[in-house]
Amino acid sequence: MKKEKVSSAVIRRLPRYYRHLTDLAKAGVVRVSSSALGESMNLTASQIRQDLSCFGEFGQQGYGYNVESLKGEIAAILGMDRGHTAVILGVGNLGRALMENFHFDRSGFHLAAAFDISPSIIGRQISDVQVYPLSDLEQYLKENPTSVGILTVPRAAAIPMAEKLIAGGVKGIWNFTNSDLNLSASGVVVENVHFADSLLTLSYLISEES
Amino acid sequence: MKKEKVSSAVIRRLPRYYRHLTDLAKAGVVRVSSSALGESMNLTASQIRQDLSCFGEFGQQGYGYNVESLKGEIAAILGMDRGHTAVILGVGNLGRALMENFHFDRSGFHLAAAFDISPSIIGRQISDVQVYPLSDLEQYLKENPTSVGILTVPRAAAIPMAEKLIAGGVKGIWNFTNSDLNLSASGVVVENVHFADSLLTLSYLISEES
DNA sequence: TAGATTGTTAATCGATTAACAATC
DNA sequence: TAGATTGTTAATCGATTAACAATC
């Protein structure tokens, strides 16, 4: 185990490792070598061994890796066992889509509450999660320490909402608004999901060819 | 203009350039230097000039870049002016959220049709887009050449649906299912939006600190 | 003109790949 | 044991940064 600073390239591959190992486990595969895993993930065996060595020694010479145990190690590295909690800000279509379809528990999260300003949605329950008025947020975060705030509000509301979350002590923000939140100063981590950037990348790739 | 092969790192920054230039234009800024743009985007001036030089010479010594014209150049590089079309497969919560809230036109796309198997949604119109039965897809694609298929179906349906899209001649797939589509053989480009990967990355980053 | 800023070449830094001794 | 495969060190490759002549 030689920690130091793990590069962002490695970190972004960890969830993919976890996903592929989950699939292997579900398929009943017990052991996997770096070369076999590499083949199915389109990575070199070398890279996989190099990546894993950032966190420890999980394999065995001549054998490879035990699928279940490697999956468990990576889950721990990802913090999936920490009982993280989340609240969602903005219960529009996207917010509701996440609440109804996204399996927070499969990522080790508990979605504990939702907040909105619309009277027509406040007070309702969506997938067992209660929708509160936004004005309750400050008090809520004071009483319920929360790991992550999910921003599914309109772009214009992104910055003030982010500030409320930071003031309330969240550690991270999952940002679905189409704006770059630059919060490096606050110590809060931001993960952006930019649909438009993703579609434009695809647009470039399909336009390139012709 | 020295084309060659543009690296994926550069390509993924292009939509961000576009987004920031759009903001600058909206704010009435007429010109911007690589160092000013770099400051606001957290990139070095050098990197910006290096990136842009993959596609041409858009600046002027002593002046910098004209915001409007650079924005236009990048839009063209991204293929935003190609009249790309899209169809969406799966009109569940996420599909509907995209249809109702995502501005396809702002990325240069026209969302032309939606397909689902649920009788309760077939025949309806959502944001002016007609929902057809999935069984019509093959015929539709034959009659309406389509740039991109959007996969918002359940994970289990991902691969067969992708195959239908490829058979129908789409150039790219925007994949929201939680599976890695490995279609390198087909010549069709896949852009994945993996919510779980994104949240797990955030989980790692907030877990790391303590 | 003088100052500013580009596009590009060279230098540096970091990430991926290859090689191999250690060992299950 | 012999074969397989790890973890790690060294080599290569690619991307970022620095430097600077060209020039608006």
Report the span from N to C terminus of chain A.
48 Å
Overall average pLDDT of chain A = 95
Strand content of chain A is 15-25%
- Gyration radius of chain A, rounded: 20 Å
Number of domains of chain A: 2
CATH hierarchy: architecture of the largest domain in chain A: 3-Layer(aba) Sandwich
- Count the DSSP helices of chain A: 8
Q: CATH homologous superfamily of the largest domain in chain A - what is it?
A: NAD(P)-binding Rossmann-like Domain
Shape field of chain A:
globular
Range of helix content of chain A:
40-55%
Structural class of chain A: alpha/beta
Largest two-chain interface? A-B, 59 and 59 residues
Order of strands, main sheet of chain A, comes to 5-6-4-3-7-8-9
Question: Care to describe what's here?
Answer:
The structure is a homodimer of 210-residue chains. Chain A is of the alpha/beta class and 210 residues long. The first copy, chain A, folds into two domains: 8-77, Winged helix-like DNA-binding domain superfamily/Winged helix DNA-binding domain (Arc Repressor Mutant, subunit A), CATH 1.10.10; 84-197, Rossmann fold, CATH 3.40.50.720. In chain A, 41% of the residues lie in helices and 18% in strands. Chain A contains eight helices and nine strands. In chain A, the strands form two sheets. Chain A has a seven-stranded mixed beta sheet with strand order 5-6-4-3-7-8-9. In chain A, helix 1 (8-26) packs antiparallel against helix 4. The radius of gyration of chain A is 20 Å and the shape is globular. Chain A starts with 7 loop residues before the first helix and ends with a helix. At the A-B interface, helix 1, helix 5 and helix 8 of A face helix 1, helix 5 and helix 8 of B. Chain A binds a DNA duplex (24 and 24 nucleotides) through helix 3.
